User: What shape does this take?
Amino acid sequence: MSIPVSMTVNGKAVSKEVEPRMLLVEFLREQLGLTGTHVGCDTSQCGACVVMIDGTSVKACTALAAQCDGSSVTTIEGLAAADGTLHPMQQAFREHHGLQCGFCTPGMVMSAVDLLQHNPDPSEEEVRDWLEGNICRCTGYHNIVRAVLDAAGKMRGQAQAAE
Amino acid sequence: MAPEGIGARLQRKEDKRFLTGKGRYTDDVNRAGQTFAVVVRSPHPHARIKGIDAAGAEAMPGVLAVLTGAEAKADGLGGLPAGWMIHSRDGSPMNAPVHPILADDKARYVGDPVALVVAETYAQAKDAADALMVDYEELPANVALDKATAADTPKVFDDIADNRCFDWELGDKAATEKAFSEAAHVTTMDIVNNRLIPNAIEPRAALGDYDSGTDVITLYTTSQNPHVARLVISAFVGLAPEHKLHIIAPDVGGGFGSKIYVYNEEVLCAWASKRLKRPVKWTAERTESFLADAHGRDHVTKAELALDQAGKITGLRVHTLANLGGYPSLFSTAVPTYLYATLLSGQYAIPAIYANVEAVYTNTAPVDAYRGAGRPEATYVVERLVETAARETGADPAELRRKNFVREFPYQTPVIMTYDVGDYEASLDAALKLGDYAGFAERRKESEARGKLRGIGFSNYIEACGIAPSAAVGSLGAGVGLWESASIRFNATGNVYVYTGSHSHGQGHETTFAQLVQSWLGIPEDQVEVIHGDTEKTPMGMGTYGSRSLAVGGSAIYRAAEKIIEKGKKIAAHLLEASEGDIEFKDGKFTVAGTDKAKTIQEIAFAAYVPHNFPPGLEPGLEENAFYDPLNFTFPAGCQICEVEVDPDTGVVEIVNFTAVDDFGTVINPMIVEGQVHGGIAQGVGQALLEGCVYDLESGQLVTGSYMDYCMPRADNLPSFRLGFTTTENPSNPLGVKGCGEAGAIAAPAAVMNAVTDAIGADIQMPATPEKIWRALAARGTAHAAE
Assistant: This one.
């Protein structure tokens, strides 16, 4: 049995027939070929699959594709500007060496972007607390924390300049 | 001006694809007509397989094949071997059965592959796997390491009576006994090096794709060393000859050792694809990673240190029981022997050392090299002993170390290794300063005023990296040589491909190696493309582990660059109408000595491919290949200082300061090197405080089989780290480098545990969980709740 699902993914409207048990992460990877969203565990602990659903970070392994009918989903592929300019969070991860093997990176970046939506000026402790749901085995988090704090500063600067 | 090339904090070339979701990991690869495989695994730690009834599963929708050990045997597939021969003390060779691709007579651990189900979709394969009927006769299991050799313990292999793989020794037993009999002080410790599960965040995956037109099997796989995988699958498993096996390890999401080994599932996908003539993909669920990735560590050691009246160390002695799990994995037998006991001298001049290591089989997952591999276990033994000896004798732990440092090089230890260079006092002094050791007493008082227990711990590690001279490892039992390869290929327009036999899975080779080429050949790094991980593209290589890629692989690139310059001089001499001996190469230019006549290396490359007027004997093209076999291991060393605060009400540990000063020799990209140290420390802190693989001793089931149960270090468990570097250039390779990938993980467990035990005034084993700490404090009457 398949059911129809329609949603907006990275700004594009998509409609597919899916099995009711299909997870959002499977839909993104297998139906849409958006393989930037990764699967690192089977217990919704690692956070490699974090995407934005209607502007809020969600582990895409905890949502059914069918649940997202009518939603707007942003994945790591949709974070940079249309002209390829990296999002300030992506840029900060690069400048601060906040990634090594790159596998946790998409979820980590999406989660960090959502943190700054909630708290534009987080302390180191608040960054560490927020990212508790994203496991990285490579970096020891040191440079990830630096990257998020730096991106926060730059994004506040941009926001002030825009005012 | 900031440096370019070697020494530059160059942002990584690989980051753009990883940050934009364009990385290409094995599970991201899909082939036309692809099928999906699910591995049926033993739910029992030890069971005889009496029969497998596949009829029901085979009849389910979409099912294409159910493969069992019987089919593997019928197709003549061999098992996966241990690659390093160890001889016991009595001269007998180790007992090392191969791991069948699918269990034939017995399953030997929970998770041991028993069958493969292939179907049109993953869901169909999973449903059919659940329906497969395997008739198991459950057998009593051997789970407890300390009872593995007992007479009444069940036998993992029917013909290995005491479950022993080997009983090995290293060092001078009599001289060591004499040192202990004459010692003024002896420190004795029981030391457990807890079993860990590696947990690279990318689960292992494999995709076999057989081409019946060419008879070539292409295998995409999460491997740290694709050529070694090809060799093992060809020469030992016998699936296909090497030239008909094409192995691609694309982007790989972390390894830490766990992706060195050739695993059953890779062979299964390649084999099933050949049988079905369709691509077959398997991707591990995290539960499978916990069950069936090779685990790490798992030593139980009795360790002793002898000191004289003046505090000089006179002897060190260990007996270690090492768990190999249910089968000997590829490097597993080398880890508790030549990668462990050879480092028991640490940074110290110890005249007499003796190690006796017994390696045993148990009904648990295979255990093999995990970040550090033997060297963390050695460092943990040495550094816990030295710190404890300092406490017992009332010496300052830094000063006791200082008194015993090796100071003259080369230094021959009593356990094989020749340390070529080092300055251990320099890194200790730098760490004492960076960590403000002088201010610790004040900080401790301040903590006490807040009701907290503060402790400090040192770890002065040494490791042997850059594995290794082929002759040396061959004489010690290795089944392979451990050289590395590189190829430099100029294109006609002057940009460059570098092919390396090493493999990057987070280490940033694409950046670091491009920096080398920029410095040596004057080609800007953005004109250099580094290619790795494909057996049809790169020369035969030995892969990445043991912090070898730069020391050995980088040296191979150096040799290839030398050959490029040599060839370039011949072409330049012709173009500039000079003699070859008068051509000098510097900063990307070939110049006739003493003149301003010059050609850029780009002009030389163009001429090499458009050789319209080359004289006879001058070969066209600009491409060179090199193989480099190292002269020695490299010996990175350094000092970590950890400071913790323990809450006596809860037993919770907070790391309040963490300082690491390392001597890695020449540093190519400080940003990348610091990242390696951070990550290593996090894994070491994980081992010390959080992580521990637990099997239920009764049922043999893996208790820590998910991220809900196995405690991974998360962002809020760790502090920011203070790093420093000292440098002694390595004389044993042309780059002066030593390797940086494992130092953090090697040193940190001892630093953390020395700090925790200092804070609580009692000795406990890793992981130092709040419960263990609280109980230790309660036993001493210092836990607040126990008052």
Observations:
- Chain A has five helices and five strands.
